[in-house]
Amino acid sequence: MYFSPTGTTKKIVDEIGNKIVEIKGIESTITIDFTLPKQRENGQIFKADDLLVIGVPVYAGRVPNILLNYLSTIKGNETVVIPIVLYGNRDYDDALIELNDILSSNGFKVIAAASFIGEHSFSKTLAKDRPDDVDLSIARSFSESVCEKIGGDSFSFVNIKGNRPYRKYYMPKDKDEKSVDIRRISPKTDNNCIDCKLCAKVCPMGSIDYNDVTKMIGICIKCGACIKLCPTQSKYFDDPDYIRHKHELEEQFKKRREPELFV
Ligand SMILES: Cc1cc2nc3c(=O)[nH]c(=O)nc-3n(C[C@H](O)[C@H](O)[C@H](O)COP(=O)(O)O)c2cc1C
Ligand code: SF4
Ligand code: SF4
Residue 153: which pLDDT band, with cuts at 50, 70 and 90? Predict the structure, then answer.
């Protein structure tokens, strides 16, 4: 299962899941993509002998808060789960431990977890093109370790990095060092738009008006899907605080970070 507006979470969850399926010879599998609002209308119930790999991106150092209601409707029955988070090379802060806690309190047994790096939703240069081949190879080795653990006599739980209580949602600062609430910002559309409607179809909040794609009918979570997927690069943010924050991230977090595995 994954929520993945710009596809990096999907890429890693698919790689990990497919490798586990291959090693264990699992015959029956399902993929649940809960990126779009419609896909989050119904919950999911898992059985004791199911195995779930679930991934979300890190937003503000945490599990995206717009997913919290939906995640509470995914129930396990002592089901083995592997939580995964994807972050844009800054940090995953308390997102992985938060996802671990949500799943543990919903009837799942977390036997392994991992953080991976994906191209930042705000940027085309920060962690550009990640996850790359090196990340994918680490994802496959992770699956091998997970399968060894599942094949063992007893499962041990994992110690996942993070703080409890969780740190507050990470907020960017403006030029006067004051916290900026980027929730008020939404994308604009330039004249190159060919009205293909793709942006309206991919928005995980259903917030772009299908009849007039220049109009917003809901909130924007800055997920980057409409910006990165528009075939004519017509969607853009021009808010000075957003642009400043994006440049700051691109400058400050150039050093390549590596996946962290907890098995
Ligand atoms: C609102 C928002 C907040 C984000 N916060 C963080 C963060 O705190 N740390 C970080 O490294 N990346 C952060 N990112 C980047 C995403 O976690 C990262 O690009 C991820 O790979 C996107 O996943 P996707 O391709 O599945 O959409 C943020 C992205 C968005 C949209
Ligand atoms: S994806 Fe781009 S070109 Fe297509 S409707 Fe949206 S803004 Fe216009
Ligand atoms: S409008 Fe906002 S929430 Fe919707 S796809 Fe674009 S960036 Fe994502």
Answer: low
